[in-house]
Amino acid sequence: MALPTLAQAQEVTAQERARIERVLRRTPLIDGHNDLPMAIRFQYASDLDRVDIAGDTSSLAHPLHTDLPRLRRGGMGAQFWSVYVPASLRGLENTQAVIEQIDLTRRMIARYPRDLEFAETAADIVRIHRAGRIASMLGIEGGEAINNNLALLREFRRMGVLYMTLTHSLNTAWVDSATDAPAHDGLTDFGREVIAEMNRIGMLVDLSHVSAPAMRDVLAVARAPVIFSHSSAYALTAHPRNVPDDVLEMVRANGGVVMVNFYSAFISEDVRAWAALRAGKQAEFRALNPGDAAAASQALAAWTEANPAPRASVSDVANHVEHIARVAGHAHVGIGGDYDGVPTLPDGMGGVDGYTLLFAELIRRGWRDADLAALAGGNLLRALRAAEAAAEGALDSRIPGLRAAQVRGP
């Protein structure tokens, strides 16, 4: 397995690199969330002919964080590709857009058979990693896609979707978002039905983006491990997208996994505070320049130049990993970089070849190989196997290891 030779990774010693390589040869590095399909949809009109991820995508007209060479340099073993669509899309319009994203992602995977292979189970991930390819899984980001209908949820599972993030930036009719005004004080009765059905059909419940009360409500009723596909620790960075300590303790009891997000504003309190201040200035300049968007934009640009954003570092990421490991346990932390879905990333980690810097930092902090392997992918594999085992059955025989069960109505 090739590991970084980039200038940004030169601080990783040969000994550290050899150790990381040994760990990742045995255990696949699994990232919980990558938004490349969204970037291709919005920046390249879903045209795969315009984006060849077999080459360097950092120099494209619209640069990307992700391509196959950098995935290989980063030691990637398995990737959850997010089939995100904007939360503002409602009802069946959202459903259709998600199906289009699933189609786009499946076509992207099929285009690179030497490097990528579709995976639906934990066993698939292990087999594909051993074959030297990158296991590729689907995760829906936003429960609006099911249009309040369990039949659609089941159909998405049949399509091979392994997790669903219950909401995104806005509330749905049945669960509150972390970044919207509370409407349900967490999870509604129908929301509890959604969780029960996800458990029944072996689909991981993803609690990234939900409000803290919703996190607690789900963990109180879930009978299979949950994941946070791309969230960090609230105790270190007080962003509502992050996970409070009491919830981390509930994750330990549940057997779930919190997969740390690399977005600068989620891992650095200085960056979060600066971003909040900038948002306030943006509102101020708009109010001072009614009807003149250009003047407001110019004023914001001048303020930003005079007040540059702080920089996050790999040490910030490692702090979140270690905090979650201390509170929830080493068996309940993972990695969910959020590449191609965020505007800023830590220094040296601006692409999917940056994972090695994190592992090297943790090695310097005294992490054992067993804990590095658990973080890399062992914890996610355990949670996924437990979700498969807890399921009453699959909707058809295409999902191995799950027993056939009668389909309930919507």
Top keywords for this entry?
410 residues; alpha/beta; TIM Barrel; six-stranded parallel beta sheet; three-stranded parallel beta sheet; 15 helices; globular; disordered N terminus
Note down, in words, how this protein is organized:
The protein is an alpha/beta fold. It has a single domain, classed as Metal-dependent hydrolases (TIM Barrel), CATH 3.20.20. It has 15 helices and nine strands. It has helices at residues 14-26, 36-44, 68-73, 91-111, 122-130, 150-158, 189-201, 212-221, 245-254, 264-267, 269-288, 293-306, 314-327, 355-364, 369-390; strands at residues 29-34, 76-82, 116-118, 134-141, 161-165, 204-206, 227-228, 257-260, 333-335. α1 (14-26) runs parallel beside α15, α6 (150-158) packs parallel to α7 (189-201) and α8 runs parallel beside α9 (245-254). The longest helix has 22 residues, at 369-390. The relative contact order is 0.15.
